[in-house]
Design goal:
With 148 residues, the chain is mainly α. It has helices at 2-17, 27-37, 41-55, 69-90, 92-101, 105-122, 125-132, 140-146. The protein is extended and about 55 Å long.
């Protein structure tokens, strides 16, 4: 059972945390790297909080959040300031170069930032422990049998 958990838990966690961006040469990759290097853990947590509040707008998730409209506005403002800073100051040259070669550069770079934000949240010991707690309810015999 313990060996099975060591396999399944990281796979399950990987579904939520994503994988670290692979940065090869190129303008979009330079922009992505600049954005990653220009954000702090605090920036990434603010981004994750914003995503959490956005997700809570889904009708099936609303009951799980107590976020107020004021908190939504504050989150929108913080993320807008972060994005503006990254594009217009911290990574201006990289953004300009990337947009010349790929119109989807912003989307790609900020998608990678989203992955980093989730990794920031998932690396917290309390979150990691909570994520792994589902494993106690796994049907280890069924999984072991299925993987033979």
């Amino acid at each position: 059972m313990q060996r099975l958990l060591r396999f399944i838990v990281p796979v399950f966690l990987g579904c939520f945390a994503g994988s670290a961006p692979v940065l090869a040469a190129g303008a979009v990759d330079a922009m992505t790297l600049c954005i990653a290097n220009s954000t702090t853990g605090k920036d990434r947590v603010e981004l994750a909080k914003w995503v959490f509040v956005l997700m809570a707008e889904h009708p099936q998730l609303q009951q799980l959040s107590t976020a107020t409209p004021e908190q939504q506005v504050a989150g929108n403002q913080k993320v807008a300031q972060l994005v503006t800073r990254l594009i217009t100051k911290d990574c201006l040259d990289e953004t300009r170069a990337a947009m010349k070669v790929d119109p989807a550069a912003l989307q790609k770079s900020f998608q990678s930032l989203g992955v980093l934000a989730m990794q920031e949240i998932m690396s917290n010991p309390a979150v990691a422990a909570s994520m792994g707690s589902f494993a106690q309810y796994l049907d280890a015999a069924a999984i072991t049998s299925a993987l033979k």
